[in-house]
Write a structure and sequence with these properties.
With about 575 residues, this protein is mainly alpha-helical. About 65% of the residues lie in helices and about 5% in strands. It has 3 domains: about 200 residues, no CATH class; about 160 residues, Reverse transcriptase/Diguanylate cyclase domain (Alpha-Beta Plaits); about 200 residues, Hypothetical protein af1432. This is Diguanylate cyclase.
């Protein structure tokens, strides 16, 4: 979610851009009004200087003045609404119509003020200036060609070969057309250069200096815009990506090597995406790709293509990585079918990314909640679902390791519950208990939760309190009370030496005994940097060694049997 500073910066940039566009628009409107006003002044001055005996001329000039006045009124009403695309990007049909109207006014003024002898041909200079400021060199050169053609056509059609004055007017008009071309080229080139410079400044402001891809600020702006443009028939998907074990790579090879790696990954991402997709560096070693008009399944295929390309590419020093390779984990979410807002889209993609990292990395995970699946299948009611989600958000914000651990324990419990042939209700209860079992850690400090070395006695006592803390938290929620035994007793030991009450054997609730094995197994394997078969075998050996001591021996035997039959659970 964008913080207040990001929102402020974004609003200030937008305010600056809008002010710039509006000022240019106002300048163009002023110049066009001046053009029309000068045209009216020229025709009225001609009326005033014309003899009242020449009634035909008076009527003709009056009619021209009225036509110009009507055009001015129409133009002012048409141009009253400011729109930035009318001053900065490609010219459109309405812009050509405007230029044509101004050209008609020019022809009427010249016709009313003496044709070849008219002193008001200089209006063409103002028209070329308007064209240059509004759309740059190419457009203004076109305008200068049109006006020069009108001026020279009048000279040729109304030229009197025998009159010396006609030759003088022709020479003056040749100089005028040359001036028009010079103004259109020079002023147009200046405007084009200034606008290109402005675009480059915006581009630099939106680019990550290290990787050469879009930065976090541009990502936020682009995602906001695409979601606002989304309708019932379109979707926007988001890929969140994180380089696996990047800290290990940085610590091993140094920050310069880490920076080079980030640039190489950025280049690969640019090569893997389609035209119209937006790749950004979200922060640190995290990247994001916005996929407009893309559903979840196609987004997963894009993510898998990126993951495979990263895995197959060689990066200097990758041999020192825990898995002897450099890989990437990717999370996928989609608006509006999965997420219902920009914040929700970022949150669910981040959730999916962390799930990919929690389940041994180097994989693509789409956002999927077992809780939502249970609710959709009418296996859990809305009240339980809402309270579980609220508590899980608390854990996620407190400690991502605990959150990832909970996700894995739930997945193991889902498989183990089925393997034990528990009743449907017991299987659901086991999964919900797995979600809740570490909720008491919310009151334990991050330093204790994330400590890699053995806890001292004081820290261990604080850690042990999470079973009782969990009971305190959920006993206030009526619909969650049935799950208190799993939360409170999943650290009891089969030999009676556990906590908090020292229960033993079958005094410990059955589902709490099931949960204890799964919880311990995941805790053992997740302490390792890379979960290999060797790590799993070591954890299984520890379970067997504690069979009948810490754990129910029959359940340990069945759990190990399940792992040996299906080693791909994680």
């Amino acid at each position: 979610m964008e913080n207040s500073k990001q929102v402020y910066d974004k609003n200030k940039r937008q305010e600056y851009d809008n002010k710039r566009y509006e000022n240019v628009f106002k300048l163009i409107i002023i110049l066009k009004i001046m053009y029309i006003v000068l045209a009216l002044i020229s025709t009225f001055s001609t009326i005033k200087s014309t003899s009242f005996q020449v009634k035909d001329n008076i009527y003709m000039i009056s009619a021209i003045a009225c036509i110009i006045a009507i055009m001015m009124n129409y133009y002012l009403s048409w141009s009253s609404n400011y729109s930035k695309d009318r001053v900065y990007e490609k010219s459109k049909t309405r812009d050509y119509i405007e230029s044509f109207v101004l050209m008609i006014i020019f022809v009427l003024v010249i016709s009313a003020t003496g044709l070849q002898t008219s002193d008001y041909k200089i209006l063409s200079i103002l028209a070329v200036i308007i064209g240059a400021i509004q759309f740059g060199q190419k457009y203004s050169v076109g305008v200068s060609i049109c006006y020069s053609s009108i001026i020279m056509a009048i000279d040729l059609l109304f030229n009197k070969p025998s009159a010396e004055a006609s030759v003088i007017y022709l020479e003056k008009d040749i100089v005028l057309t040359a001036v028009l071309f010079i103004i259109s080229i020079v002023l147009g080139m200046y405007v084009d250069t200034e606008r290109q410079y402005f675009k480059e400044l915006k581009k630099v402001a939106n680019m990550d200096e290290l990787t050469g891809i879009h930065n976090h600020r541009y990502f936020q702006d682009a995602l906001t815009r695409l979601i606002e443009e989304c309708n019932d028939n379109t979707e926007v998907s988001l890929l969140f990506m994180d380089i696996d074990y990047f800290k290990h790579y940085n610590d091993t090879h140094g920050h310069q090597a880490g920076d080079l790696l980030l640039r190489e990954v950025g280049d690969i991402l640019k090569a893997c995406i389609r035209n119209g997709d937006i790749v950004s560096r979200y922060g640190g070693e995290e990247f994001a790709v916005i996929l407009p008009n893309t559903g979840q399944q196609h987004a997963i295929r894009v993510g898998e293509r990126i993951r495979k390309k990263i895995e197959e590419s060689y990066f200097k020093g990758q041999e020192s990585q825990p898995n002897k390779n450099l890989t990437m984990s990717i999370g996928v979410s989609t608006y509006p079918k999965v997420a219902n807002s920009k914040y929700d889209l970022i949150s669910t993609a981040d959730h999916a990314l962390y799930k990919a990292k929690a389940f041994n990395r180097n994989r693509v995970e789409h956002y999927h909640s077992i809780l939502d699946e249970l609710y959709e299948n009418n296996q859990v009611n809305k009240e339980v679902l809402d309270n579980l989600k609220k508590l899980m958000r608390m854990i996620n914000q407190k400690d991502k390791y605990t959150y990832g651990h909970v996700e894995r324990v739930v997945k193991y419990c889902k498989y183990f519950g089925g393997y034990l042939r528990l009743s449907p209700k017991e299987q659901i209860d086991l999964q919900i208990g797995a979600y809740l079992h570490d909720i008491g850690k919310f009151d334990i400090s991050k330093e204790v939760l994330n400590k890699r070395n053995n806890l001292n006695s004081e820290e261990f006592e604080a850690f042990k309190s999470h079973s009782m803390n969990g009971e305190i938290i959920i006993k206030e929620i009526e619909c969650l009370k049935p799950f208190i035994p799993m939360v409170k007793y999943h650290h009891e030991r089969y030999d009676g030496k556990g906590y908090p009450e020292g229960l033993k054997a079958e005094e410990i609730p059955y589902l709490a005994r099931v949960l204890a094995i799964v919880d311990s197994f995941d805790s053992m394997i997740s302490t390792e940097t890379y979960i290999s078969e060797k790590v799993k075998d070591s954890a299984i050996a520890s379970l067997l060694a504690d069979s009948g001591k810490a754990f129910d021996p029959q359940l340990v035997e069945l759990f190990v049997e399940m792992l040996n039959k299906n080693g791909k659970i994680v």
